[in-house]
Amino acid sequence: MNKNRHIIGELQEFFANNDASKAINSISTIMNSIRIQSKVIGSVKNPNCKFTCLQVLQLLVLFPFFSVKNAANYSSSALCKLFTCDKDMFYRFMNDGNVNWRCIIYSVFRQLYSRVSRKTTAKSDVKCVIIDDTDLPKTGFKTEKIGKVFSHTQMKPILGFKAMFLCFTDGISQSILDFSLHGEEGKRSDKPQGLSKKQANSRYTKERSEDERIAKRSSEYLASKIETAISMLKRSIIEGVRFDYLLVDSWFTCTELLKFIVSRHFGCHLIGMIKMGKIKYETALGTKTAPELIKVLQKTKNLKYSRSIGYYTATISAKISGIKVNLFFYRKGKNGNWNALLTSDLKLDAKEAFRLYSRRWVIEVAHKEMKQNLKLGKNQCRDFAGQIAGISLCVLQYNILSYVKRNESYETIGGLFAEITKNSVELSVAEKIWLLIVEVISVIAEALNCDAMALTEQVISNDKQIKAVKMAFDKLAVAA
C-alpha cells in the first residue's frame, strides 16, 4: 500500500458498489472530508510500515463500524480483506507516547462543528460544557498504573481507572472535547492505590522521556481532578470553544471552579448541584448552611410550586468566597428530599436553571453509549499510552456518530451504530460461511479422490444460496 492510497475513498467506492446502507455511506463521507495533518498527529511513520500514520488512525477509527473488537481480531475481519496488515502495526501506533491525541480530537471537533454551524438556520441556542467522570473497571493487574478507585455507583473500591470527560452540547447534539485518566492514592500508606506489594510489582512499567506527550498525561493521573478540570477548560478556551454555562454535579461544584468561571472575559456562568452539607453561605437570613436555609425558607412560606417542571422551588441570593450567587432549592412532592443548585448567573430563575441543568444528563448518556457501542474502557493494552489511545479513539468515533445522528435524523446513537455495523457483519458472516463450505468440500474431495476445485464449481452451479455466498466473498477478494 502506498501513501497516496485513500482508505476512506476506497471504502466509499466498495460500499457504493455493494448497496450499503445510508449510515455507512454517511460515515465514509464525513471521514473522507476530515483533514488531519501529520504534524497534528505528532507520531513519526515507521520506515518499515506501508501505511502512513493517518491511514493507521483511519483504520483504528473504523474498527467498531466493522465489528473489529481490537487489533488482535483485525486479521479475521472483513476490513482486513480490504486493507491487509499485521496487528502489531496498530499496537505500535497506540503505544506511541508522542501521538498528540488531544490535538487530533480538537481538530476533528472543529471541522465537524463548523459544518454544523454552517447548516444551522435556527437562532443560536445556549451552549453548555459539562464535566463529569465515570468508572472504567479492569480485571487484571498487568496494566501500567492500574490501581483501585472508589466507585460511587457501586459504593466500594474497584480495580480500574476514573476517566473525566469534558463534553460540549448546544441542546441538539453533543461532542466530547477532552478527557483525563485518573487513579487514587488510597488511604493506606502500606497499600498505595489499594494494591499489595505483589500486585503493584506485577504492573507493566516503561521508561519514558519527559519530552513525550504521554508524560503530561501521566502527571495528571494522581493530580487533583479540580485542577485538571480547570486545565481542560483553559485548553478548550484556547482552542476557540465558547460556552454560556458550565454544568457540574455536587462533586465538582467548588469555589475554585466558580472563581475560574466568573473570571472569564466572554461572560460564561456556572450551574452546579450543591451538597446539603456544612458549607455556609452569606445571605440576608444570615450565614447559614443549605439545610438551615431551606428550613427558614419553609417557615417564611417562600416556597412556590412550578407546574412546568413539577417541583416545589425556593430561591435566595447568597455570597460564597465573596462571589454573588443564587441558590435554588427543589423538592419533588410534599414529602420529597430537598436538592439545590448554585449559579453565578443572577438573571436566571429557578425554572430556567433547572431546565439548563437537566442538560448535564447528556454526558451520562454519552458514557453509556460509548461503553455499550464503542467498548469504552475495554482496551487491553498494558501500556498507559495505549489506554489513552483507546479512550481517544472512542471519543473520535462518538463525535463522528453524533454528527451523523444529527444530520441523518437518527433517534439514538445506538440505532445509528446498529445500522452502520449491519453491512460489515453481513460481509464478515458471508466470508466465514464460504470458507467453511470450501473446507468441507475439500475434505469430501479428498475422501472421494477427486479434484476439489471441480467439485466446488459443481456444487456452486447447483445451489443458488451457495453461489450467493461465493459472490459476496469474491467482492471482498476483488476489493482487497
UniProtKB/TrEMBL annotation:
Region (Disordered): 185-211
Residues in Transposase IS4-like domain copies: 239-400
Pfam families: DDE_Tnp_1
UniProt name for this protein: IS4 family transposase
GO MF annotation: an example: DNA binding
InterPro entries given in the database record: RNaseH-like_sf (IPR012337), Transposase_11 (IPR002559)
Any one GO biological process: DNA transposition
Organism: Phocaeicola plebeius
SUPFAM superfamilies with a match to the protein in the record: Ribonuclease H-like (SSF53098)
